[in-house]
User: Which sequence fits this backbone?
């Protein structure tokens, strides 16, 4: 019996750690609105609350998130918005998220921000205790991209929220639902900045 336990312990330890071998955990999602403001810069960035969505990636320690990034231009008082999305997944290739539609079928512009690959190069050779992992080497991809949001959309949906369906070149789709609270807090921060720089 003791021999059986000794054989099982390395495997049990491996089961808990194999999902994140070689992959440091993501920082926890931002839970408040953040401002990047300086008297020396022509614009102010408002980074909204990060919302975790279920992308079914199954990657432990990884957060699939989206947040609203607003930019206020002090001289022109113009504002731009993007829904910034991070998507992790296991796959043999990149998905290339490239187009998006609003819940009223309106097309929204998608801008790639960053695409990268993370992997445990030793996945097939990772030693856990005295046991060697039998899991094949796996690539972990992530993509960051922005979805353009018109200012009138943000303000019109402050009490209802909105949903966006995103389409990848590889054929995958996902629906992101932005709740009213996120929009309300974003606009409150944005309007306070606009008031601060009112002429």
Assistant:
């Amino acid at each position: 019996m003791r021999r059986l336990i000794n054989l099982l312990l390395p495997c049990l330890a491996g089961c808990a750690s194999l999902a994140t071998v070689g992959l440091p955990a993501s920082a926890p999602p931002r839970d408040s609105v953040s401002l990047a403001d300086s008297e020396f810069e022509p614009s102010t960035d408002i980074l909204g609350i990060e919302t975790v969505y279920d992308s079914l990636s199954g990657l432990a320690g990884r957060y699939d998130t989206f947040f609203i990034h607003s930019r206020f231009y002090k001289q022109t008082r113009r504002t731009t918005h993007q829904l910034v999305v991070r998507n992790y997944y296991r796959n043999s290739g990149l998905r290339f998220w490239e187009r998006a539609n609003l819940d009223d079928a309106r097309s929204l512009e998608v801008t790639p921000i960053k695409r990268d690959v993370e992997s445990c190069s030793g996945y097939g050779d990772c030693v856990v205790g005295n046991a060697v992992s039998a899991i094949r080497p796996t690539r972990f991809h992530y993509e960051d991209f922005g979805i353009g949001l018109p200012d009138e959309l943000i303000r019109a949906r402050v009490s209802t929220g909105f949903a966006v369906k995103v389409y990848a070149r590889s054929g995958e789709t996902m629906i992101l639902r932005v709740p009213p609270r996120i929009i309300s807090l974003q606009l409150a921060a944005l309007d306070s900045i606009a008031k601060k720089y009112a002429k």
User: Anything to note?
Assistant: DSSP finds three helices and 13 strands in the chain. The longest strand covers residues 79-90. The mean pLDDT is 78.
